[in-house]
Write a structure and sequence with these properties.
Layout: E1 9-12, H1 18-29, E2 33-38, H2 43-54, E3 59-63, H3 69-83, E4 86-91, H4 106-127, E5 131-142, H5 144-147, H6 153-173, E6 179-185, H7 198-208, H8 217-228, E7 239-242
Helix pairs in contact: 1-8, 3-4, 4-6
């Protein structure tokens, strides 16, 4: 499907694996120049440039901790220096852990909130001066923000906060022509966020999902491409649930 994005420049945070990687590759296939970031070396971060080269695309890969405003500012400056003004921003970087509240130390609470929420604040704020007219922001959240999940109060809280951030910024940035939407994903296979109950937990989610299967990262990436395209030009402040009917 051609979303007519060719020639644009997108910044995707956390783009080396899972949903982020699928989004990077989908945008590359659409002819978008992509800047993305990662926090630590891995097989995925090492293989991404080759995967993009195989598609004939343009990629700028930068090590960045989205919790650090200075690093994020440097990321945006580097992105603009390489590919020019930013047409699209996909806030995908996120972390998770599974702990009961009584075992959740303050440092772990802050690690999750600082990455998943403050990281988005940092990236959107740093990108604002570099946005083209009619830029589009997509914030990746999760269906657990609505449904809840035990042993992950910090993660659920962070994903719910993204709903509020999206709704606030759609009103603030709309007069500038910047659209801000949110994608709440269901249980996606191969994201690296493994259910602590293993195969039993995976089977439970399959049974809970109307389509009787888990989602694939590429199925999230397709919706991201739609939200970045002119096909969604009158959509902002929306929360799109892509969850197979869980």
């Amino acid at each position: 499907m051609d979303f007519e994005l060719k020639g644009r420049h997108a910044v995707v945070t956390g783009g080396t694996r899972g949903i982020g990687r699928a989004t990077v590759l989908a945008l590359i296939e659409q002819g978008v120049a992509v800047t993305t970031c990662f926090t630590s070396d891995s097989a995925e971060s090492e293989s991404l440039p080759g995967a993009v080269a195989d598609l004939g695309g343009q990629l700028h890969l930068v090590r960045t901790d989205v919790r650090d405003a200075e690093q994020v500012g440097a990321l945006m400056d580097s992105a603009v220096g390489r590919f020019g003004p930013i047409t699209a921003l996909v806030n995908n970087a996120g972390v998770i852990s599974h702990l009961p509240l009584e075992a959740m130390e303050p440092a772990e609470w802050h690690r999750i909130l600082d990455t998943n929420v403050s990281g988005m604040y940092n990236t959107i704020r740093a990108a604002l001066p570099h946005f083209t007219e009619q830029a589009s922001v997509v914030n990746i959240s999760s269906g657990v923000a609505r449904h809840g999940m035990p042993f992950a109060a910090h993660y659920v809280t962070s994903k719910a906060a993204i709903f509020g951030l999206t709704r606030a910024l759609c009103k603030e940035l709309g007069p500038r022509g910047v659209r801000v939407n949110c994608l709440a994903s269901g249980v996606i296979d191969n994201t690296g966020h493994k259910n602590p109950r293993g195969d039993e937990g995976k089977a439970m989610y399959v049974e809970m999902t109307s389509l009787r299967r888990l989602g694939e990262p590429a199925e999230i990436a397709d919706v991201v491409c739609f939200l970045l395209s002119d096909a969604s030009r009158y959509m902002t402040g929306a929360i799109f649930e892509v969850d197979g009917g869980i």
